[in-house]
Write a structure and sequence with these properties.
The complex is a heterodimer of chains A (about 250) and B (about 200). Chain A is an alpha/beta fold and about 250 residues long. In chain A, strands 1, 2, 3, 4, 5, 6, 7, 8, 9, 10, 11 and 12 form a 12-stranded mixed beta sheet that branches. Chain A is built from 10 helices and 12 strands. Chain B starts with a strand and ends with a helix. Chain B has 5 helices and 13 strands. Chain B has one domain: 3-Layer(aba) Sandwich (Rossmann fold). Chain B is α/β, with parallel strands linked by helices. In chain B, about 20% of the residues lie in helices and about 35% in strands. Classes of the chains: A alpha/beta (about 250), B alpha/beta (about 200). Chain B: Its EC number is 4.3.2.10, 3.5.1.2. Chain B: It comes from Lederbergia graminis.
Chain lengths: ~250, ~200
C-alpha cells in the first residue's frame, strides 16, 4: 500500500515564504525555491505552496516561483491560493506545478472543481477545506483566509467535493492553524471516513509526535506541516525515523 | 540526443527538466520528422488513453514509435506512455500500440482511485534499468489503470495496491514504468540516468 506522506507547506507572499498564526500576523521565513529544494533533498514526499499574495504583481511573482521550483525540485508539488478560474489553473500547471489547490473559489462556484477535473484530471485537483468548529459541535467551511463563515457543513462539503471530481482533500482546522497544539483529530477522522479519496491533515502540527499521532489515530494519507520544519525544530528525516519506529509506513524518499 | 515525445496534452516539462538536469541533451518530438538523429526515446504520458491514441495516430507518431522500437532504439514509456505500449486499454476502450501482449485494466473500487503516492517496487529480476536502485525502493505513482501483460516475464517490477500489479514492464529495448521517475526523488533520477546513460 502507499506510504504515508510528510508534506511541508510554504505560505508564499510576494515571492517570500511567510508564516502566520490563526491565518494572521505574518513573519518572513525565507526564499521559497531554496526552501523547497532543501525540503525535497531532505525527504519531503511532496510540497504544498499557498500563494497568499493579495495583488496581481504578487500572483505573477508566484508563477515565476513555480517555474523555478519545477526546474529544481523532483517531488510532486501543489500550488494553491487565489485560484478562481480554469485559466488560473492552466497558468499554474503550465508553469510546472503537479497539482492545484482550490478553496474559496469552489465554495463560490462548485462547478469549478468539475470543470477543472474534466480538463486536467482529478489527480491534479486538490480541494482545500478550511473548517472551524462551532459551538453546536459541527465544523463549518470558512473562506477568506479563515475569516468568513460560508454556512456549509464541512463534512457534507467534503463529500460533495469528491463527487465533483476533486482528487484529494486538504482539510485545515482554522482553530488549530499555527497554534502547534496538534492536528484536529476529530475533524480529520470525520473527513477521512466520509470520502474515498486521499486526505491530507493540516493545521496545528507543533512537533513530530503530532504527525505520528495523526497517522496512528486516523487513516489519513498525509500530514502537512509548516512551522516545525521552517524553524528547524525537527528535520523531515527525523520525523520519518520516528514514524518508522512506531510502525507507520513512510517512504524512503 | 534523447527524444521526448510531445503530443501536446501531457505535462512533459518535468521529464524534460529532469533529463536535462542529469546532463543529457533533449529534443521534443512533436511530429514524425523530429525522430531523425534521436538515440533514445522517452514517452511521458498524462491523460486519457483513447484521446492520446487519437492524437498520436493523427500526427503519425504512432507509426514512428513502432518503427523506432523495431529498429532497436531504447524506449522508455512513463505512466500513460507505458500503458499505451500494451494491446488494448479499458480506459474508453482504446486500441493501443501492441508492443507488449496484454491489456490495461482499471483498479477495482475497493481501493482509493487514483492510486496516488509513494509505493514500493519489487524488482523481479536484475535489469539494467534497476542498476543502483535498492529492491523495494519507493516511487511516486498517480494512476487509475494498470497494465496486465500476458507474458509474466515481461513484468520485471511489481507493486502492491490492494492487489499486485505490474509497475515496470520490459522486453528487449523497451521499458515501461507506471510511476513518475521525474517525481520520485533520488531513486527516480537514478532510473532516468540508467535509461539515458550507458547502462541501457
Amino acid at each position: 500500500m502507499t506510504a504515508k506522506k510528510i508534506i511541508p507547506c510554504l505560505d508564499v507572499k510576494d515571492g517570500k515564504v511567510v508564516k502566520g498564526i490563526n491565518f494572521e500576523g505574518m513573519r518572513e521565513m525565507g526564499d521559497p525555491v531554496a526552501m523547497a529544494k532543501a525540503y525535497s533533498d531532505n525527504g519531503a514526499d511532496e510540497l504544498v505552496f499557498l500563494d497568499i499574495s493579495a495583488t496581481t504583481e504578487g500572483r505573477d511573482t508566484m508563477v515565476d516561483v513555480v517555474k523555478q521550483v519545477a526546474a529544481q525540485v523532483n517531488v510532486p508539488f501543489t500550488v494553491g491560493g487565489g485560484i478562481r478560474t480554469v485559466d488560473d489553473i492552466a497558468r499554474i500547471l503550465d508553469a510546472g506545478a503537479d497539482k492545484v489547490g482550490i478553496n474559496s473559489a469552489a465554495v463560490a462556484r462548485p462547478e469549478l472543481i468539475k470543470e477543472a477535473a474534466e480538463k486536467f484530471g482529478s489527480e491534479r485537483i486538490v480541494a482545500a477545506v478550511d473548517a472551524k468548529l462551532f459551538p453546536d459541535g459541527t465544523w463549518r467551511v470558512m473562506t477568506h483566509g479563515g475569516l468568513k463563515d460560508a454556512g456549509i457543513d464541512a463534512i457534507e462539503w467534503s463529500k460533495q467535493l469528491e463527487q465533483l471530481g476533486a482528487g484529494s482533500l486538504l482539510p485545515t482546522s482554522v482553530d488549530r492553524d499555527g497554534v502547534k497544539d496538534g492536528y484536529d483529530l476529530e475533524l480529520t477522522k470525520a473527513i477521512v471516513e466520509a470520502v474515498n479519496i486521499p486526505v491530507i491533515a493540516s493545521g496545528g502540527c507543533g512537533n513530530a509526535e503530532h504527525i505520528v499521532e495523526v497517522f496512528e489515530k486516523t487513516n489519513v494519507d498525509a500530514a502537512l506541516a509548516a512551522s516545525i520544519f521552517h524553524e528547524n525544530s525537527v528535520s523531515i528525516q527525523e520525523v520519518k525515523e520516528l514514524c518508522r519506529n512506531r510502525g507507520v509506513n513512510v517512504s524512503e524518499a | 540526443m534523447i527524444g521526448i515525445i510531445d503530443y501536446g496534452a501531457g505535462n512533459l516539462h518535468s521529464v524534460d527538466k529532469a533529463v536535462r538536469k542529469l546532463g543529457f541533451q533533449t529534443k521534443l518530438l512533436t511530429n514524425p520528422e523530429d525522430f531523425t538523429g534521436i538515440n533514445k526515446i522517452i514517452f511521458p504520458g498524462v491523460g486519457n488513453a483513447k484521446k492520446t491514441m487519437e492524437i498520436i495516430r493523427a500526427s503519425k507518431i504512432d507509426t514512428k514509435i513502432i518503427q523506432s522500437i523495431a529498429a532497436g532504439t531504447p524506449f522508455l514509456g512513463i505512466c500513460l506512455g507505458m500503458q499505451l505500449l500494451l494491446e488494448f486499454s479499458e480506459e474508453n476502450n482504446a486500441d493501443c500500440l501492441s508492443i507488449f501482449e496484454g491489456k490495461v485494466l482499471p483498479f477495482k473500487r475497493d481501493v482509493k482511485v487514483p492510486h496516488m503516492g509513494w509505493n514500493e517496487v519489487q524488482q523481479q529480476i536484475n535489469h539494467p534499468i534497476f542498476k543502483g536502485i535498492p529492491d523495494k525502493a519507493d516511487f511516486y505513482f498517480v494512476h487509475s489503470f494498470y497494465v496486465n501483460p500476458s507474458n509474466n516475464k515481461d513484468a520485471i517490477g511489481t507493486t502492491d495496491y490492494g492487489q499486485e500489479f505490474c509497475s515496470v514492464i520490459a522486453k528487449d529495448n523497451v521499458v515501461g514504468v507506471q510511476f513518475h521517475p521525474e517525481k520520485s526523488a533520488d531513486a527516480g533520477l537514478t532510473l532516468l540516468q540508467n535509461f539515458c546513460g550507458n547502462s541501457f
